[in-house]
């Protein structure tokens, strides 16, 4: 998978998601967040746009140390040619986040000089 480093120095990778198996896929550019050990976090507006169904909630500790309970939703993610049913976490942030759960088993290379992201 190929991604880019944007002008704000965020390492981004495109991820295809949908609400139902074999449903209409929608692409989001997710900010790779190696401090997040989950899979995906989507802003509430993206969840609403995709029509995802609420599943449950999960405790989380935010970057500022605040402990919160965040809703989770069911989602299908296309990842390296396969489709997976997974839970995503909702937040009020501006950007989707991709965590280390999806990076596990892969090699990540980010070149800020070339503004490229390679995930193999």
What does this structure look like?
- It comes from Fuerstiella marisgermanici.
- This is Clan AA aspartic protease, family.
- InterPro entries: Peptidase_asp_AF0612 (IPR022274).
- The protein is mostly beta strands and 120 residues long.
- It has a single domain, classed as Cathepsin D, subunit A, domain 1, CATH 2.40.70.10.
- 9% of the residues lie in helices and 54% in strands.
- It has two helices and ten strands, in the order E-E-E-E-H-E-E-E-E-H-E-E.
- The protein has helices at 44-50, 100-103; strands at 2-5, 11-18, 26-32, 40-43, 53-61, 67-79, 82-91, 97-98, 108-111, 116-119.
- The chain has a six-stranded mixed barrel.
- The longest helix has 7 residues, at 44-50.
- The protein starts with a strand and ends with a strand.
Pick out its properties.
6-stranded mixed barrel; 10 strands; hydrolase; 120 residues; single chain; Peptidase_asp_AF0612; protease
Give start-end ranges of low-pLDDT stretches: none
Helix-strand sequence: EEEEHEEEEHEE
Could you give the order of strands across the largest sheet?
2-3-8-4-7-6
The CATH H-level homologous superfamily: Acid Proteases
Total DSSP helices: 2
Helical residues, percent? under 10%
CATH class designation: Mainly Beta
Q: Tell me what the CATH architecture is.
A: Beta Barrel
- Supply Rg: 14 Å
Secondary-structure class: mainly beta
What fold name stands as the CATH topology?
Answer: Cathepsin D, subunit A, domain 1
Please report which band the strand proportion falls in: under 5%, 5-15%, 15-25%, 25-35%, 35-45% or over 45%: over 45%
End-to-end Cα distance: 6 Å
Main sheet properties: 6 strands, mixed, barrel
Q: How many DSSP E strands? A: 10
Number of domains: 1
- Outline: globular
- Overall pLDDT confidence: 92
């Amino acid at each position: 998978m190929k991604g880019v480093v944007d002008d704000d120095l965020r390492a981004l990778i495109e991820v295809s998601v949908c609400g139902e198996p074999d449903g209409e896929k929608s692409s989001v550019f997710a900010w790779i967040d190696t401090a997040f050990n989950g899979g995906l976090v989507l802003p509430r507006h993206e969840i609403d746009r995709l029509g995802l169904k609420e599943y449950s909630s999960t405790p989380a500790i935010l970057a500022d140390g605040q402990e919160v309970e965040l809703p989770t939703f069911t989602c299908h993610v296309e990842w390296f040619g396969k489709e997976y049913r997974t839970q995503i976490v909702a937040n009020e942030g501006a950007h989707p986040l991709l965590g280390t759960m999806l990076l596990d088993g892969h090699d990540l290379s980010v070149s800020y000089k070339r503004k490229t992201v390679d995930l193999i």
